[in-house]
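Memo to structure team: turn this sequence into structure tokens by end of day. - J.P.
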Amino acid sequence: MNKYQRIVVIVAAVNIAIMLLFPPFLDNPLRRGVFPSFEGFYPILTMLGVKRIHSGLLTLQIMFVVINGLIAWLLLDRPPLKGVLPDFRYMRAISLFLVANLVVLLTFPPFESYPSMVKYEAPYFDGFYFAFGDKRQRNFFIPLLYLEITLVVANTLIVWLLFNSVKRDELFARERILELAQALPPEQFAEVSKTLGYNAIQPAHDQEPHDPHLGTGPDRRRYRDPRYRGPERRKSSDRRLKTRTV
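Reply from structure team:
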């Protein structure tokens, strides 16, 4: 299990825990012959034993989270090839995942019940149906649809922030390893940079040392930054010479 898969498991577990702590409940109709309908989400400690849990809706919620987590797990299960760490473009993957979830939610939205012809009653949640099927003449159940979209967007933003934090830590660790590996021979330095996924350039040994002063730090131009995908315009040790002559 890599770091990204661990994040997916944690986020899915937190979502399932929230769903179990605040499950959907059914109402208690006063009239005889009326089936209970969805009433809302309540804390399980306050409503357990008072109202019945909407087991069908709760099962659909948990299945939706599990399926999303399983798909993300399989997509993130990419072992490195030939000792080189793969470049993970999580921004594009998360964006596609968000679009796919929104398409599913809008294709099978929650619908309201049919209006009663005997006595007026407030519309309630009736079920999920195909948006272009025979139920299209009915209204969407906006509160539940709004809650679904809000949770999907919130989970996407949380996963994006966590992935971004892990990616920054990995890049910082690789840069630190390369800084420590500069004292190695050129062959070993190239092997380390190849393993880390960098196009490293061993600094020339004949360069004159310079005294450290305010504003100087580790030179990042001696190897190729994987975050920059454009062509490299400077070559080998001439990069430092060009900056000095300016």
